[in-house]
Every structure is written in C-alpha cells, then in structure tokens.
Amino acid sequence: MALEVAVKAAVGAPNVLGDCPFSQRVLLTLEEKKIPYKLHLIDLSNKPEWFLGVNPEGKVPVVLFDGKWVADSDVIVGILEEKYPEPSLITPPEFASVGSKIFGSFVSFLKSKDTNDGTEQALVAELSALDEHLKTHGPYIAGEKVTAVDLSLAPKLYHLVVALGHFKNWNIPESLVHVHNYTKLLFSRESFEKTKPPKEEYVIAGWAPKVNA
C-alpha cells in the first residue's frame, strides 16, 4: 500500500511540487528505497482544513505511518529506515555530521546585506571542509554508495546553487572540484530528477521573501 506524504506545493502554483528541501529529502528516501507513495501537495499560504486537522502545526513534510501523521524529516527518515531496511541508507556514524553546517551558512550568506560580515567566508570554509572530506572518502560522503547524509545534503546544495546564483551571482568556487563532482552526481540521480522542483523559479520564489526581508 502506498504511503501518504504531504509536502510543500510551489509558491504561486499549488498543483506543482514545491521547493522545500526537507520535503525533498523524504521523497528522495522514498525513491531510493523504491517505496510507493501518494503525494499531497500543500499550499502553505492556504493550508487545507483536513491538513490542519491531522497536523495542527501545519508543518511539512508529514507522512502517514500506521494511522498517525508524523512530522520532522529526521524522524520520518529514521522510521523509513526501520520499516524498509532494504536497501540500507544508513550513514556510518563517523560521517553522519559531514556538511551539517553548510545549510545554515548558506542561509546567513544569502540573507546578508553586508559584504564584509564574514558570511561568505564562513560558507566557503564549510564547502572547503566538505571538499577535503570527499577528496579522501568520496565520491559520496560514505564512499561509493549513496546514504542518508547525501540525501539530506542534496536538496540543500541545490538550493544553495540556485538561490546564490540568482540573488548574488555567486557560484561554488571552481577550485572545490570534489564538491562540484559531488553535486553533479547527486543532481543527476534519477531520484533527484523526479523529486526536485520542476523549475528553478520555484526555488527563487521560495527564498525571495527571506532575501528581501
């Protein structure tokens, strides 16, 4: 039986898959594990009553497990690994936190109005650390096989590339060759192609209010 999954719809296009990286992480996990699922697209500016009824906080993603809607992508991915252990996507514990500060650094730099506040340097430092890790352990974070940490990072790196390219005309430094190879590998996976926002403009629309705040 297909799992029911509620995720963000695109800004301004409620019938189109949206740009939430945490929603995409869950969808990537479902795709990589070949778990059938039924998608509910939630317009976050006009949340349906049924959705608020089962999920009063109104957060996405949520997945229906055994009659109960469960929120939080960390929790959801953990349950999926437990209920559907094959193929295993478990990341070795020593690699589980690799790249974990990249998304926060990206958001700080994206929202920054001061070119001298150190946010760009902080992001480059995090990406450089990822590059060093991949140089030794790649092509994925835990080696030859994609694991949960890659599926968490992939949507965040996609947002980084699209949003910083659009709002700041900024690209990941060419010198970080292992990061560039990593993003190419991730973004070309069939699971990623199927679960990413259909157009980059949906990612841009999702970030615009935060950038212009």
Automatic annotation (TrEMBL):
- Asked whether the keyword Mitochondrion is assigned, the reply is no
InterPro entries xref list: DHAR1/2/3/4, Glutathione-S-Trfase_C-like, Glutathione-S-Trfase_C_sf, Glutathione_S-Trfase, Glutathione_S-Trfase_N, Thioredoxin-like_sf
- Which reaction does this enzyme catalyse, per its entry? L-dehydroascorbate + 2 glutathione = glutathione disulfide + L-ascorbate; RX + glutathione = an S-substituted glutathione + a halide anion + H(+)
Q: Which terms under GO biological process does the entry name? A: acquisition of seed longevity; ascorbate glutathione cycle
**Matching CDD domains:** GST_C_DHAR, GST_N_family
Molecular function per GO: glutathione dehydrogenase (ascorbate) activity; glutathione transferase activity
| GST N-terminal domain ranges (all copies) | 10-88
Write down the superkingdom of origin: Eukaryota
- Name the keywords, alphabetized: Detoxification, Glutathionylation, Oxidoreductase, Transferase
Q: Which Pfam families match?
A: GST_C_2, GST_N_2
- Domain GST C-terminal: start-end pairs: 66-213
Q: Which family does it belong to?
A: Belongs to the GST superfamily. DHAR family.
* PANTHER family the record matches: GLUTATHIONE S-TRANSFERASE DHAR2-RELATED (PTHR44420:SF2)
Q: What name has this protein been given in UniProt?
A: Glutathione S-transferase DHAR2
Instruction: Name its species.
Output: Glycine soja
- List the lineage, top down: Eukaryota, Viridiplantae, Streptophyta, Embryophyta, Tracheophyta
